[in-house]
Amino acid sequence: MALVATSCRAEGKGKTEADSIVVEPAVEHHLSLLFAGDLMQHGPQIKAALQSDGTYNYDECFAGIKNEIERADVAIGNLEVTLGGKPYAGYPQFRAPDEYLRACIDAGFDILLTANNHCLDSRRAGLERTIMMMDSLKVPHLGTYVNQEERDKAYPFLFEKNGLRIVLLNFTYGTNGIAVQEPNVVCLMDTTEIRADIEKAKAMQPDAIIALPHWGIEYQQLPSAQQREMAAWLISNGVDHVIGGHPHVAQPLELSEDSCHLIAWSMGNVVSNQSKPNTYGGYLVRMELTKRIPEHAVGDSIAAEVKLSDCGYALYWVSRPNDNGFKHNYRVLPIDIPDSVLTGMEQKNRYAIRASMRRLMERHAKGVSEYSID
Predict the structure, then answer these.
(1) What is the per-residue pLDDT across 264-317, written as a single tens digit (0 to 9) for each?
(2) Rounded to whole angstroms, how far apart are CA atoms 79 and 141?
(3) Half-sphere exposure of 315 (CA within 13 A, CB side)
(4) DSSP letters of 161-173?
(5) What is the mean pLDDT of residues 124-143?
(6) Quick one: DSSP state of residue 341?
(7) What is the mean pLDDT of residues 244-255?
(8) How far is 169 from 241, CA to CA, in rounded Å?
(9) Which of 63, 254, 317, 368 is an S-S bond match for 281, by CB 3.0 to 4.6 Å?
(10) Does residue 289 contact residue 30 with C-beta atoms inside 8 Å?
(11) Preceding omega of 183 cis (within 30 degrees of 0)
C-alpha cells in the first residue's frame, strides 16, 4: 500500500511561536476503513443460492475476500437491492432474499449504504422492510429513511472508532423514475440539501467527512464531467474523501496532489450477474486515518492533526457457476488467486479481467498503489 504522510485536518487552533509551546511525545490513534462497491443480486444469483429446503445459502459468495473485509476496523458496502420479501426477483427491480443481507453481515460489512437507484424497487413497503431487516440484525445503515424525523436523528451518519469521529454522507442521482412515497425519505444528489448536511456534519466536530455518492454513467470506465464537478464541489465545501459507485465497472482511484483527498470514482460491482465488459471485477479501497494528539504541552493547547496515513486498492473478480462447472456458487475471489484452484474457464476469464483492470488502474490511478488480498 502507498504511504501518505501529509497532515490534512486539524482540530482547533494553537499558537506557532516556538517558545510558547513545548511538545512531549504524542498519542496517535489509527483507524482503518474499507470500502466496497455494489452488492447486487440478479435472478441467476438467487437461483444459484436456492437450497432444496427452500432457504438460500451464500456461504461461498464472500469467502475469498472475507479476511480482507474483516481486517478493517470498519467496512462499508453499497446494498443495491431491496429486501421486499417474496416473490424474490432480480433485474430490473431487485427483491433479494433476507439471507443475502445476513451473508453481507457475516462477510464483515459493518455499515451498509442504501441510497441508490434501486432503493425503491419494492416501493414504500420494500424500502421500509429493508430498513426493518437491517435494524433487526443491528447493522448500521444510511441513505434511506422511514420518515423525515428518522433522517434528522440519524443523518449525517456519525460513528466513533479507535478515538476518531467519522461522518458519512450517502446520496443518489435518482431512483429510476420511481417517486418517493411520503413519509419515506431518500437522500438525493441535491446540492442545496447536501450543503446543509455538510454544515451539520461540521458541527459534529468530526475528524473526517466522507461522501459516498451513487453517481456516474453505467459501464463507462472514466468518470463523467458531472462526477468531476460534483467531487470538486464536495471537497470545496468541506468533504475530505469521496468514494463513489453505480457505473458497475471500475473507474480510477485518485489521490489529490496534497495527499489530503482520496477519490474513488467507482469501485465496480462486488458481485453480480452482469455480462457487459468489465462488470466481472472491481476493487476494494482501504485507507488508514491517523490522529495525532500531543500528550503534554506547555502554553496554549496544540491542535490534534488528522492525516490520511495509508491508502491502496485490491483487485478482485467474480467466478460464476458456469465458469466452474456448477461446482460452486458465485464467488468473489482475489485477482491473484492461484490457477491451481481454478478451472480452465475461470483462469481464462480471470486473465482477461485482470489485464483489463490493471491497464485501467496503471493508466489512471494517481498516487495510489495496488496491494494483494491475503
Answers:
(1) 999 999 999 999 999 999 999 999 999 998 776 544 556 789 999 999 999 999
(2) 9
(3) 28
(4) ETTEEEEEEEEES
(5) 98
(6) G
(7) 97
(8) 10
(9) 317
(10) yes
(11) yes
165, with CB counted inside 10 A (0-12, 13-18, 19+), is middle
Spatial neighbors of 88 by CB under 8 A, at least 6 apart, are 46, 95, 96, 97
pTM for the model stands at 0.93
| 191-203 and 225-236 helices, crossing angle to 10° | 30
Check residue 219 and give its pLDDT: 97
Residues 6+ apart with CB under 8 A from 349: 280, 317, 319, 323
Mean pLDDT score across all residues of the chain = 92
The two beta strands, 269-271 and 331-334, are unpaired
Coil, helix or strand at residue 174: coil
**Cell of residue 199, nine digits:** 454544515
Number of Cβ within 10 Å of residue 209's Cβ equals 25
pLDDT at 298: 47
What does the alpha-carbon distance between residue 88 and residue 73 come to, in Å, rounded to a whole number? 33
The torsion angles phi and psi of 220, rounded to 5 degrees, stand at -90, 130
Distance CA 122, CA 116 (A): 13
**Percent of the chain residues topping a pLDDT of 70:** 92
